[in-house]
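FW: tagging you since you asked about this chain on Friday. Here's the raw sequence from the shared folder, copied in full. Didn't touch anything.
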Amino acid sequence: MTSDNQPTHTTSLAGRVALITGAGVGIGRETALAISAAGAFVGVHFNQSRNEAEQTLADLIEAGGNGMLLQGDLTQSDQCAAVVDRLVEETGRLDILVNNAGAPIERAKIEDCSLELWNQVLATNLTSAFLVTQRAILHLRKSGHGAIVNNLSLSVQTGGANGAGAYAIAKGGLQVMTRTLARELAPEVRTNSIMPGVIETRHHELFTKPERMQQYRDETPLGRNGQPQEVAATIRFLVSDEARFINGALIDISGGRFLR
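HL: got it, structure written out here
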């Protein structure tokens, strides 16, 4: 038996509602599946990847879970509001927010980066998380289990190699926002961030050459790149009651790439 001050530790998310942005592919997809498997109702957000998001939802329902599709361009405040509001209208609550959506858009060194590209990268990776979070805060505070996880990038440490500087800067801003929210929203809401290393997803199929992926494997102490399911498992832990004293943290999921 436990006292009121010492609740039973559990990773169960039964009865909770989660919004996962960019849940059609990669880390977002696997996070949606993992959080659903733990018992939560999942809002599967997408912007352009409708077919992939539909498949994510179908897979979690087939596995015994429940959720709904939510479409919206998160760089637009009205669409952010609609995404959050639709989920809350359907379920009556919001307990978990995973700000996963983001992309480098296009590679360019800072000296060659146009203002248009700069603004697009920051909007996609930083402003979008700000807008969704701002709309979600009221509901997360009411939850009793409010938890936010922001998905950063290895580039926060590296500075963004090979023209990913704007992306790295945006993700760095998201890390500062994590610390800010951890102070502003506690104790009602915990806010943490993860920093995935090289995870074998469609992101790297689009932006990284195969020989470079092999080089990453060779450089990593664990001798391989990560899988999206491994990142999803960490997120599931962070939003659970087992992590109830973790707030403002940055969790490195890189296989030890920074061990030098």
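FW: The chain has nine helices and seven strands.
HL: agreed, and The longest helix spans residues 115-143.
FW: great, closing this out.
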